[in-house]
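User: Here's a protein and a ligand (2'-deoxycytidine-5'-monophosphate). What would the complex look like?
Assistant: Let me lay out the input and then the predicted complex.
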Amino acid sequence: MKKINIAIDGYSSCGKSTLAKQLARELNYIYIDSGAMYRAVTLFLLQHNINIQNHDEVIGKLDEIDIYFEYLDGNSTTFLNGKNVEKDIRKMDIAKQVSHVAIISEVRQKLVKQQQHLGRDKGVVMDGRDISTVVFPDAELKIFVTAEIDIRADRRFQELKDKGIESSLEEIKSNLRDRDYIDSTREDSPLTQAEDAILLDNTSLDRASQLKKALEWAQERIEMLNSSSGS
Ligand code: DC
């Protein structure tokens, strides 16, 4: 059975990664959190006291950064230079800086190359901002997820709380607004809905209903691919 690639893009904290993880589990595909890669680069730069506004300084450090994922207890986990950084990259100091790092073209080129390599054999569900438009422009299924800002802020607050990370709802909301603005207005690969992406507004959808819709779309595409190739 031939596999497809699934690209999921959308604003910060709109449920992309929840959907992507669920889809990957149902289909037995690999889940890749591309945002975690930008977060890991940001963590490295902060740990090494690099001035993020100084792009030459950032670019000079990129060769020292090695990011990869491993499944631990069934969860995709982010590693930076051999260290599990899954929890560290979710913290607010990273969320505040990551969009400034993600505007740097050389950072994007490095990560996009790695993301495309990870998806070369298909069977990948990847979420981010430019997956449908830049990373996998030929993905068989593209979904653009959106939800109202208050709902998104509430969900992120709960998620951080569940992970034992302290935050405030107001701070989260303002961070989401800032990131949405920077991510969708930057020059290189701004967040935008691909022409052939399906819009999924999950403001009033629970996780199960969202998954049901997306699974139907995925299964349609998988069937189409396999019937057209005769395998
Ligand atoms: O999905 P996330 O919130 O973990 O992403 C963190 C930041 O990384 C986001 O604000 C913008 C950037 N990003 C990006 O520019 N391109 C991607 N494909 C994924 C994330």
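Summary: The first helix runs from residue 16 to 27.
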